[in-house]
Amino acid sequence: MASSLTCAGVIWAFLSFLCAATSCVGFFMPYWLLGSQLEKSVSFGTFRRCSYPVRDESRQMTVMVEQCGRYASFQAIPSAEWRICTVVTGLGCGLLLLVALTALMGCCVSELISRTVGRVAGGIQFLGGKCSCGQGMGM
Question: How far is CA 90 from its chain centroid?
Answer without folding.
Answer: 5
